[in-house]
Design goal:
Shape: globular
Organism: Diatraea saccharalis
Number of domains: 1
GO biological process, one term: regulation of signal transduction
CATH class: Alpha Beta
Helix content: 40-55%
Function: Methylates the carboxyl group of the C-terminal leucine residue of protein phosphatase 2A catalytic subunits to form alpha-leucine ester residues.
Mean pLDDT: 92
CATH topology: Rossmann fold
Strand content: 15-25%
Number of helices: 12
CATH superfamily: Vaccinia Virus protein VP39
Low-confidence stretches: none
EC number: 2.1.1.233
Largest sheet: 9 strands, mixed
Family: Belongs to the methyltransferase superfamily. LCMT family.
Number of strands: 9
Distance between the termini: 43 Å
Radius of gyration: 19 Å
C-alpha cells in the first residue's frame, strides 16, 4: 500500500513552477524563438523575460523536440508518449499539427494542475477539437479527461501504486514503443520515490526511451545560489543530492534498469544545435550577460536513457 501523502505548502510551491515555466515559454514564443499556436490558451500576456532566460528555454524546447522526433522516426503509429509532470505543456497539440502520429498520449500531474488544464481544454474549441473522439466528445471521469488517444490524469508521482493505476486507466500498453518525458519533475521527488518510479518504467517497457531535463552540477557556488533561490520560494529540491555532473546522471539510469544512457549539460546541447538555428536565435535579442547564460546552461542537463535496440542509437548528433 502507498502511504497517503498530504498536500503541503511545498507542494503548492512546486505546482507554481508550472505557471512560471508557461509564462517563460509564452514570452519566448511571442519574441519568435519558436512557434507554438497553443501556449497562449494556458497563460495570458506576460512581462518580457531576460534574454538569457528566453534563450535557455529555446534550447530546452528545441532539444526535447529533437529527441522526440528521433523516437518517432523509429516507431510506427502504435507508439505511446507518457508525459510526467506535464503541467501546461502543449506538445500533444503541436504533434497533432505534424504528420507524426502517436497512438496514445498520457499526461500525469498533480490533480490541481490537471483539473486546471482540463478546464482550459474544455473551454477552448481549438484545443478541444484536436482531442475529441470519433463522436466529437471527451469523457470526464473521476476528474480525469479521456478521449481516443489522449488522457489527462491527476495523480501523485510519489505514489507508485497510484501511477500504475492511472497509467492503466489511460490504456497504457506494456508492449508498445514508449517515450517517457520528465522535464524538471523527478528532482522534486525524494530519491527513493524517483528511483522506484524509474525502475518500474524500465522494467515495464521493454522498448522505451526516457528524456529527462533537470538541474545538474549544483555543488558549486552558482548551484548554491540556485538552491537558495528555490528554497526562498518554499520549493526545495528533494533530489538535490542526485543533481551531479551529467555523466553521473546517466550512470544512475543504468543502475535503475535502462540499457543505455547519455547525458549532456545544456551548453553542450546548445553547441550541438545546427549553426543556422543558433544564428537565428542569437539575432532575436541582444545578450549582454553571456557569462550568466553559460552558467545557466552548465547547471541544467539533458539525459536520454533507452531500452531496446531500436532506440540504442538515439544521440545528440544523430
Amino acid at each position: 500500500m502507498d502511504n497517503i501523502i498530504s498536500w503541503t505548502a511545498e507542494d503548492e510551491a512546486i505546482i507554481a513552477t508550472n505557471t512560471d515555466a508557461t509564462e517563460c515559454k509564452r514570452c519566448a514564443v511571442e519574441l519568435g524563438y519558436w512557434k507554438d499556436d497553443y501556449i497562449s490558451y494556458f497563460v495570458k500576456h506576460v512581462d518580457r523575460k531576460a534574454p538569457e532566460i528566453n534563450r535557455g528555454y529555446y534550447a530546452r524546447v528545441r532539444a526535447m523536440e529533437m529527441f522526440i522526433h528521433q523516437f518517432l522516426e523509429r516507431c510506427d503509429t502504435k507508439c505511446q508518449i507518457i508525459n510526467l509532470g506535464c503541467g501546461f505543456d502543449t506538445l500533444y497539440w503541436r504533434l497533432r499539427d505534424t504528420t507524426q502520429a502517436v497512438g496514445n498520449f498520457i499526461e500525469l500531474d498533480f490533480p490541481s494542475v490537471t483539473a486546471k488544464k482540463g478546464h482550459i481544454i474544455k473551454r477552448n474549441k481549438q484545443l478541444l477539437e484536436k482531442i475529441c473522439n470519433e463522436d466529437g466528445e471527451v469523457v470526464i471521469r473521476e476528474g480525469d479527461l479521456h478521449s481516443d488517444g489522449y488522457h489527462l490524469l491527476g495523480c501523485d508521482l510519489r505514489c507508485l501504486g497510484e501511477v500504475r493505476r492511472k497509467l492503466a486507466v489511460g490504456g497504457v500498453s506494456d508492449t508498445a514503443p514508449t517515450l517517457v518525458l520528465a522535464e524538471c519533475v523527478l528532482v522534486y521527488l525524494r530519491p527513493d520515490a524517483a528511483a522506484a518510479l524509474l525502475r518500474h518504467l524500465a522494467a515495464t517497457f521493454q522498448r522505451c526511451a526516457l528524456i529527462v531535463y533537470e538541474q545538474c552540477n549544483l555543488g558549486d557556488k552558482f548551484g548554491e545560489v540556485m538552491l537558495r533561490n528555490l528554497n526562498a520560494r518554499g520549493c526545495a529540491l528533494a533530489g538535490e543530492r542526485l543533481c551531479r555532473e551529467p555523466s553521473a546522471q546517466a550512470e544512475r539510469m543504468l543502475t535503475l534498469g535502462f540499457d543505455k544512457a547519455r547525458a549532456w549539460d545544456m551548453e553542450t546541447v546548445w553547441r550541438a544545435l545546427p549553426e543556422d538555428d543558433r544564428a537565428r536565435v542569437e539575432s532575436l535579442e541582444m545578450l549582454d550577460e553571456r557569462e550568466l547564460l553559460l552558467q545557466l546552461n552548465t547547471h541544467y542537463a539533458l539525459t536520454v536513457a533507452t531500452r531496446g535496440d531500436v532506440f540504442a542509437d538515439m544521440d545528440l548528433n544523430a
